[in-house]
């Protein structure tokens, strides 16, 4: 299997090394061959190539079986013009590779749940998956520009029916593999795009008779995620709503540093990245938490390579290491756990695998 | 003072009666004259006049000094076509009256804080004001329509620089009256409209040297509201971000049934409504909580009539009644408080005022 690594900026490079080590351990144990090649994206690509997404990066990803991405961005590039911002690389690669479905599983780790901002009885039992449309909507629509001599501005939320259908299908399919409940989030009382979205969900229902469907308005969803997150199984929504709600959901279980994500297209190809960012404040200190990146690699094993056992072993390893009380500086562990750095944490996961 | 009452649907009519009684008590005590006239909006207006916003309603509001609105909507009208949905009445009246600034203060009541989904040490000290742009952006932009034979759909997020300037000014002014911290929320790493928004905030800074300004991306704001709500004083943002974030924020303190809102234009005219909806499930039972509506009337006394003492008295009355343990069914009170209905609750507030 050909894997392209895009470490990106900040702690991205540090946690990417960890993922590679873990994948090498899996390859050894299960007799697989993973080959890695590394390319630039984000700020580092701006510095080296003058663009956040060099053509050779895109080309390499297109040839690969899967892509792992660290994180992009940092204060160094914050005042750059639009086309020279690290985030453009991220938006660009998603679009170029057709990664329309962003999966963000959110589940608490028992050892970390006490660090949740929510009361224990509120967050207890939460285990949800947000399926976010990733290549359409307001973040990609045109026009997106100043008008009238800079006196006004416009962005465009555009979707084709096909784009809505394929992400809604993905939502239903994910629900079928889980607890069979789909929550579709929209603003159908105001937006025309949401009305079409809701129509598509209603049409598709018949194809997935085993799945229970509910519609929730985005403002209500933002409330319910806090008051009763355990009510949700799979939540499917368009790009911007998904951006906001998935970040909101990511802090519920007290495990932000632990959350992986998968960005998929129709076939088995995918890009996998941690939900956390490039954390410029702690970059280069060897203290970054590599577990979200490692769990992203596990998602890759599962979704792109269909290596269920291997993925499960990685997930068990992470859980076991946490259960033993090992934690990185960002994790708030009860009792006298042992604080470790990025390398040691990676080593512990690798040891468990071997 | 001429006050137009728009009770609307569901519990809207019940809580509007309460507000009127409280305002009458204030008028008696302080020797003011408030005259009330009632008009239809929302579902009831659809039923009676075939439109969610009859012209006579708009005309009456334009003549008035302030407007109180109950709530609109209900399952009866949920499947109506767009232009015959109760929410259109709400969007329409905001636009017609030029109510560009929606103020949503969120502060916990000590007696209710235990009902917060957040841990006490997380929510403690939270006292924020969300200033939401209310008449521009994605909910009003055109085109908002199906295209290509229904195979695609588009909504438009449009702002003029002027529209951004006036709401940003409002945000700064609110911050000056409070703890002097302004958090501007945008998605400037992706949206052109957010870039202009951020530019305007940066330009305006100099005019309000006593206010500290920070920029937070909307996805990060959705997280921070949960992990550390007490860090915020005034949050200013565009329409849709404000819709989502203010609803998210409304559940943090366990007092959703208590939250008022004000929708203002440049002069002192305003429309005041509770944050909660029409609650069709409990309508007509006499158990609705009238306090958010009563507190909305207090906001009217303050913002539209500049009657600070009168407004403070209403707020103290509400607090006192709660402190005595009286509560409606929706409120989760510690210990053996006494549960009362809408009428009794109103009476208690009125008694305190007299
Ligand atoms: C960096 C930004 C463009 C990106 C997004 O909003 O899509 C990020 O917030 C994310 O959620 O992956
Ligand atoms: C009913 C709806 C149109 C409205 C809005 O989104 O503006 C409501 O959610 C609100 O926040 O007042």
Q: Please, could you describe this protein's structure?
A:
The structure is a homodimer of 354-residue chains. Chain A is of the alpha/beta class and 354 residues long. Chain A has twelve helices and 14 strands. In chain A, a hairpin with a 4-residue loop joins strand 6 and strand 7. In chain A, helix 6 crosses helix 7, helix 8 packs parallel to helix 9 and helix 10 packs antiparallel against helix 11. The first copy, chain A, is globular and about 55 Å long. Strand 7 of chain A pairs antiparallel with strand 7 of chain B, so a sheet runs across the interface. Bound molecules: 3-isopropylmalic acid (2 copies). One 3-isopropylmalic acid sits at the interface of chains A and B.
Short recap of the structure:
The structure is a homodimer of 354-residue chains. By secondary structure, chain A is of the alpha/beta class.
Structural topology:
The structure is a homodimer of 354-residue chains.
Chain A lengths: L1 E7 L3 H19 L4 E4 L4 H7 L5 H9 L2 E6 L14 H11 L4 E7 L12 H4 L3 E7 L7 E7 L4 E9 H16 L4 E6 L5 H13 L7 E6 H10 L6 E4 L1 H12 L9 E5 L5 E5 L16 H13 L4 H16 L2 E2 L10 E2 L2 H12 L1
Parallel strand pairs in A: 1-2, 1-3, 3-12, 5-10, 8-9, 8-10, 13-14
Antiparallel strand pairs in A: 4-5, 4-11, 6-7, 11-12
One 3-isopropylmalic acid sits at the interface of chains B and A.
């Amino acid at each position: 299997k050909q894997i392209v690594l895009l470490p990106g900026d900040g702690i991205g490079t540090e946690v990417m090394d960890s993922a590679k080590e873990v994948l090498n351990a899996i390859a050894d144990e299960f007799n697989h061959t993973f080959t890695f090649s590394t390319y630039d994206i984000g700020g580092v690509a701006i510095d080296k190539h003058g663009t956040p997404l060099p053509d050779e990066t895109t080309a390499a990803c297109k040839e690969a079986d899967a892509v792992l991405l660290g994180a992009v961005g940092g204060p160094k590039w914050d005042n750059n013009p639009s086309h020279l911002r690290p985030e453009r690389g991220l938006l660009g690669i998603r679009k170029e590779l057709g990664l329309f479905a962003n999966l963000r599983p959110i589940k608490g780790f028992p050892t970390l749940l006490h660090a949740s901002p929510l009361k224990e009885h509120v967050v207890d039992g939460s285990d949800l998956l947000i399926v976010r449309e990733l290549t359409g909507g307001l973040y990609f629509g045109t026009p997106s520009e100043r008008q009238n001599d800079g006196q006004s501005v416009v962005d465009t939320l555009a979707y084709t029916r096909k784009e809505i259908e394929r992400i809604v299908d993905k939502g239903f399919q994910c629900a079928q593999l889980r607890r069979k409940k789909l929550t579709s989030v929209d603003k159908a009382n105001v937006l025309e795009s949401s009305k079409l979205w809701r129509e598509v969900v209603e049409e598709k229902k018949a194809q997935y008779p085993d799945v229970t469907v509910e519609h929730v308005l985005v403002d209500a969803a933002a409330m319910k995620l806090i008051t009763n997150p355990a009510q949700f199984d799979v939540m499917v929504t368009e790009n911007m709503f998904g951006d906001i709600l998935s970040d909101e959901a990511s802090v519920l279980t007290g495990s932000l540093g632990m959350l992986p994500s998968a960005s998929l297209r129709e076939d088995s190809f995918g890009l996998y990245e941690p939900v956390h960012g490039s954390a410029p404040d702690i970059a280069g200190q060897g203290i970054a938490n590599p577990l979200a990146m490692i769990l992203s690699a596990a998602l890759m094993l599962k979704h792109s390579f269909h290596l269920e056992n291997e993925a499960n072993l990685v997930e068990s390893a992470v859980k076991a290491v946490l259960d033993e009380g090992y934690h990185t500086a960002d994790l708030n562990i009860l009792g006298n756990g042992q604080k470790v750095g990025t390398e040691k944490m990676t080593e512990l996961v690798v040891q468990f695998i071997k």
